[in-house]
Design brief:
Elements (H helix, E strand, L loop, with lengths): L7 E5 L7 E5 L5 E7 L7 E5 L7 E7 L8 E5 L5 E7 L3 H4 L2 E6 L4 E7 L2 H10 L16 E6 L4 E7 L7 E6 L8 H18 L1
Antiparallel strand pairs: 1-2, 1-12, 2-3, 3-4, 4-5, 5-6, 6-7, 7-8, 8-9, 9-10, 10-11, 11-12
């Protein structure tokens, strides 16, 4: 993609029919516009340069139509795959757990929920009519991207907002530049999946 200026802000657009959001860097520059394609049997997400959607940067596609243990591959516009993210099946029911792989299908990172109880409370309180509109003001889960040395490299947090529409991606440990894209694309896909779950 490009050299990211952290933190990045993901802001969902609530006035559109599709599940889409903008990613803006620390300088206020839009670095991506993410649009989940509607009416697809398998998940399909387009990552564009900006909200005009004229320049496609990446595609994210599911390997199956049931997403319980689906993997989502990342490819450039020519179709060349360079990484993927997979949900860790049963482990993700209680606490979000994803695995991030490179183009050689080697495990590079895991994404884990920082505090499972925040997500549980968010899910429970989110089922109460009217109150569910305000859960984003006080229940905000966070997710950690952890490398093979068990070091946290990136943190994604749900920010205080009505209807849970804003997320912040912060760099905890300096990234080497080679894995930036698979980490950011993994977080983009994970946010779409986790936000849908509540």
């Amino acid at each position: 993609m490009q050299d990211y200026k952290f933190p990045l802000d993901f802001t969902f657009h609530i006035g559109t029919l599709s599940n889409d959001f903008s990613a803006v860097d620390a300088n206020g520059k839009m670095v991506a516009y993410v649009k989940q394609k509607l009416f697809k049997f398998k998940e399909a997400v387009g990552v564009y340069e900006n909200d005009s959607k004229t320049n496609l940067l990446y595609n994210i596609k599911a390997d199956r139509w049931i997403d319980f243990s689906a993997c989502y591959s990342f490819s450039d516009p020519s179709g060349k795959e360079f990484g993927k993210i997979g949900r860790k099946g049963w482990a993700s029911l209680w606490k979000a757990h994803y695995e991030v792989f490179d183009e050689n299908k080697q495990l590079k990172y895991t994404i884990r929920e920082e505090n499972a109880w925040v997500k549980v409370m968010d899910g429970l309180v989110g089922q109460i009519p009217i109150i569910n509109l305000f859960t984003g003001l006080f229940l905000n889960p966070a997710y950690l991207v952890i490398n093979g040395n068990n070091e946290t490299v990136v943190r994604l947090s749900k920010e205080k907002s009505l209807v849970g529409r804003r997320f912040k991606v912060s760099e905890v440990k300096k990234l080497n530049g080679n894995d930036d894209d698979i980490i950011i694309l993994s977080l983009m896909m994970m946010v779409l999946l986790e936000r849908r779950k509540g």
